[in-house]
Amino acid sequence: MKQLLALLGLLCFSMQAQSPELALTITNIQSVKGTIEIGVFNTHDNYLKEGAAYKNYSIVVTDNSETIIIKDLPKGEYAISMYHDKNSDDKCNKNFLGIPKEAFGFSNNIVPKFSAPSYEDCKFVLNDNEKMDIKLTAF
């Protein structure tokens, strides 16, 4: 029994070691208050659908640039979206046209012009440790 537990422990450790680290730096934070809400999507089917992110992360804003180290994403293809929830109401506030009133950002630093970017525009492959910068944009 002890051998089985040791083997399972070793297997779990080895699986964790295979997950790469993503160092995500968010820049152009205009206000040092609230949180940055991050959604990580792993398919185009659920991309940008509310409540459908593969993983969610939240960072309390303490500076004009914030970094989060994500260690729990297995190797694969992803797209990231985020917004600065300045008023901490847990939603991306939008105007009557549906345009975000709070700053937002996407992987690959895609800046949308007339509609939200596609999964294809924002996707990236995470196979090894990676650093990524995302600049927040506000309209």
TrEMBL record:
Keywords: Signal. Residues 1-19 form the signal peptide. InterPro entries: DUF2141 (IPR018673). This is DUF2141 domain-containing protein.
